[in-house]
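Continuing from the previous page...

OK, I double-checked the sequence for Extracellular solute-binding protein against my notes and this is the correct one:
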Amino acid sequence: MNAISRLWIAAVATALSPLAAHAQDVQLTYLTHWAPDTVALLEKAAGAYSAKYPGVAISVRAVPFGDLLTTIRSGGTDGPTIASIYDLWLPALVKDGLVAPAPESVAGDVTANWPAGIAAAASVNGKVYGIPNEINVYALNYNKKLFAEAGIAAPPKTWDELKDAAAKLTDASAGRQGFGMINSWAAGVVHPFSSLLVSNGGQLIADGKPQLDSKQALETFQLYATMVKEGYSVAAMGTADANTTGPFLDNFVSGKTGMIIMANWWESALKGGMGDAFENIATAPIPVGPSGDKARSISYSWQTVVNAGAGEAQQKAAWEFLAWLNGPESGKNGASAMADILQSMGILPSRTSDVEAYKDALGRPFLEGYVATLANAQGFPIVLGGQEFSEALQQVVEQVQYGKITAEEAQANAQADAASILERAAQ
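Thanks. Re-ran it with the corrected sequence; updated structure tokens here:
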């Protein structure tokens, strides 16, 4: 073979390599909030990618959920190359120039292969900035054994039935609350409250304006106030920690909480804590309020983004890795490696082909209540100021949980806080 032939073959090989732009090893860092066993699965997938494409090395770092956004922001453009984020954070991170827009190939993949609502949550002003992975919705989780002991034949479908079941399940002498409410964690407080609100025909935000001054919102605050006043819900039993575990989880696992509204992702935590007793747990759609017409839920998603401050080679390698990780060629039986990781936690994947690949697994009993409400789920509003809005509403709802303010005071405070936050964020 002459020199010209060797040069031609080398040039073709270089052109065909997805990592052709990387003249030397590229180091990527991936920030997440996942637990160690899940991080190990992500590291395994990253290792498989590096073995296939030796020019890229990927290290994974995990921090508690409560520290995730702070870690991303404090690192600035020198922070992790890739970060897993809650969709509510995206508009502000884009505004502050901390995340890079997806290249055309990735943006086209997201638009074509994810449901429109989920793809929209990964976009700002029509431009894609992230690759969606998990989607979460809320359902009523209840203990079938406690229901049977209390003589409750079926999960509540209305708020009146919810209150009646909570009364029957509550046993102060046994340290048991009928209905659990989470506190000390913004999403854990706001998403269940919002799921009840939308099941009562209400909304959080419409056309950029808060809707917490509605009749439906007042009725939702009143429901919470009643649960607390009657002793059906005890705030001290609902505390969450920075890892989104803690007493609220422990009390449900141990049978000290009869019902709670939670997202599908905690299935693995319940299995781990309950063992064989997990078979006592069932799910049902959110009970419908007096002003509602059907069971609804709040949904939210997560996505992975790339640091806008990373070098050109790093950004290119990061997007190529993420496209592979979330693509059908990286996992088993047509599913992505990301879907395999999510399913290990009991989390719903969001890519259309992943949902199809895991169709049988998604039909398991625990997910029945979630699947039943998925079609009527409403996405948590993705707006500038959304995180601050959520944290302000959290504080108001917690004041109701601890019996510090009335439902009427909560409504007035929540609406005033939200109006101020959204107006300021829009400036």
